[in-house]
Amino acid sequence: MNVIYIAETSLTNKSAYTHHVLKMCDAFCKKADVQLIIPYVGNNLNLKKLKKNFLLTAKKNILVKSILNFKVSNFLYRILFGYKSATYTKYSNSELIISRSLISSFFLCFFKINHFLEIHSEFRGFTKFLMIYFNYINSPYILKTIIISRALSKKFTTLNKKKILILHDAVDTRNFSYSKRRNKIKSATYVGSFHKGKGIELLLHLAKKFKKLKFNIYGDPLDNTYDISKNVKIHGYSNYEKVPYALVNSDILLLPSANVQYGRSKSVNISNYNSPLKMFDYLAAGKIILASKRDGICEVLKHNFNSIIVNKYDLKMWTKAMNEILNNKYQLHKLRSNSIKTAKKYTWDKRAAKILNEIN
Q: Which residues contact 285 (CB under 8 A, 6 or more apart)?
């Protein structure tokens, strides 16, 4: 089988978008020949290093196809990428085409090319105009619309429900090795971006309340405007290959989410329907997860089963939840065990298999 995957990403960036695309292509590589179409590759692509950094496990390599000779820097270039991706794909004879690019999907529909469209956030601007008001979202050439959570699917009221395929993000549990469990809780860890609403401010305040705990924060460096206590260590960005080790060697994994949260776009609030990729890494690590109550998150995380859910994004509530963990209110061994069991239900291989089953 031949698979084409279209994505508006650069393989050199650090985003969850790139991580998701590479892990999905890697999963498809175990069943098919995969071409990843992106705007620009450049001269420094090192597939061996890429596989190491993202812990890709397929024996086959992903064939990376550069459609443009330059990076996408504005909307006109996105349109050009979408058009050229569709024209290239038209003559590919691929059995499965997946697009993470809305504009590419529009051109695929225009050229009457069957494909799957994957959506991780609400539409906005010109793409909303095309996909919703011109009803391209219900084009017969979009065979299935893959949506990252049930909460997000509710945003698309005009979409034919028979064409919706709900698939959360995923994890490769084989990336995680388990050491002997510590009974004493000594550390709490956050991994991810520092976009607005991700909860960094709350975590720094929480660290001041629990000075005997070590707080590890992995992500971009924090600027001097933050008041950082001595028990907080900012590790900066780490390649994904180091993330499983960092999570397994922590005790509590933190997933705060404010009422308003932004991802790649600074104009769309993703807080209530987001299904964070790191949530599945947290589950696979088999540790205690402390998370905000959000619709998308709570489709996977269940209070007192595989995690502890905090009802409000509020320092007082988070402090109370942390104290309950430290005072053994919960059966922590049960939470750890159930988190691993949950992670095994959400693997990249199973996610890819569900898409392939739709084609079959």
A: 176, 244, 247, 248, 250, 253, 339
Residue 249 near residue 185 (C-beta atoms within 8 A) = no
**pLDDT value of position 52:** 93
Q: What band does 256 get if pLDDT is binned at 50, 70 and 90?
A: very high
25, 61 Cβ separation under 8 angstroms: no
Half-sphere exposure of 94 (CA within 13 A, CB side): 26
Within 10 Å of residue 188's Cβ, how many Cβ atoms?
Answer: 26
Inform me whether the pLDDT recorded for 323 exceeds 70: yes
pTM of the predicted protein model: 0.93
> For residue 343, which phi and psi values (nearest 5 degrees)?
-60, -35
Is residue 92 predicted with pLDDT exceeding 90? no
Return the pLDDT at 225.
Answer: 67
Question: What is the full DSSP assignment across 153-176?
Answer: HTT-TTS-GGGEEE----B-GGG-
3-state SS, residue 129: helix
Residues 6+ apart with CB under 8 A from 5: 21, 24, 25, 28, 34, 35, 36, 37, 97, 98, 100
Helix axes 200-209, 315-326, angle to 10 degrees: 50
What's residue 264's pLDDT?
A: 64
**What region, left, alpha or beta, does residue 319 occupy, with left being phi > 0 and alpha being psi -120 to 50 degrees?**
alpha
List alpha helices for the chain, DSSP H: 16-29, 47-53, 75-90, 102-110, 125-128, 150-153, 200-209, 243-248, 277-285, 315-326, 332-343, 348-359
Domain architecture of the chain: domains with CATH: 2-167 (3.40.50.2000), 175-343 (3.40.50.2000)
Q: What's the mean pLDDT in 148-163?
A: 92
